[in-house]
Write a structure and sequence with these properties.
4-stranded mixed beta sheet; 4 strands; 6 helices
């Protein structure tokens, strides 16, 4: 979050950063009971995030599906989802701006326990969305990818899945 906040502060005029939008995004994501990778709430949150990216002109938005096999904090195989939004540049060189949107509550049942994750990491997703909104108004040499990962609370599965896909492409 700090890196994205510094990026916004250094590259965009402050009047373009909408604090109310940041707050609204955090509040919306925190309304989900949980965004645990093992629950249907994750998919619902991904659809909402994809819709928010979809409101930004010039972005190509996808909900990326990837498998996670049964493991620590993953009680059964999961078809996980995450949101990838791409702002095409002049080249295929890519800059990735990312945060995770999944949450976890280690003190209770991960499937039913409340885990709003406002600070871990709805705030980071809000900053990523705001970066996309501000940067979409400018022309860029490099392609910029805005990724909101899942599976991070269980072991960095989402970022690994995107890295593997990038390598294969």
């Amino acid at each position: 979050m700090l890196a994205i906040s510094l990026f916004l502060a250094l590259t965009a005029p402050h009047e373009h950063i909408e604090v109310a939008r940041l707050k609204a995004t955090i509040e919306k994501l925190a309304l989900f009971n949980t965004r645990n990778t093992n629950t249907p709430d994750l998919g619902e949150a991904a659809v909402w995030i994809a819709g928010e990216f979809g409101k930004i002109p010039g972005l190509k938005v996808e909900i990326m599906h990837y498998p996670i096999a049964k493991a620590n904090r993953i009680p059964k195989d999961v078809d996980a989802v995450q949101v990838i939004a791409t702002l095409p540049g002049d080249t295929d060189h890519r800059i990735i701006i990312s945060r995770h949107f999944d949450t976890i509550n280690l003190g209770a049942d991960p499937f039913t326990a409340r885990a709003p994750g406002a600070d871990d990491n709805a705030s980071g997703v809000a900053a990523t969305l705001e970066c996309a909104r501000v940067l979409s108004t400018q022309h860029h040499r490099n392609t910029i990818v805005f990724a909101t990962f899942s599976g991070e609370e269980q072991g960095l599965y989402g970022s690994r899945a995107l890295a593997e896909r990038a390598k294969s492409e």
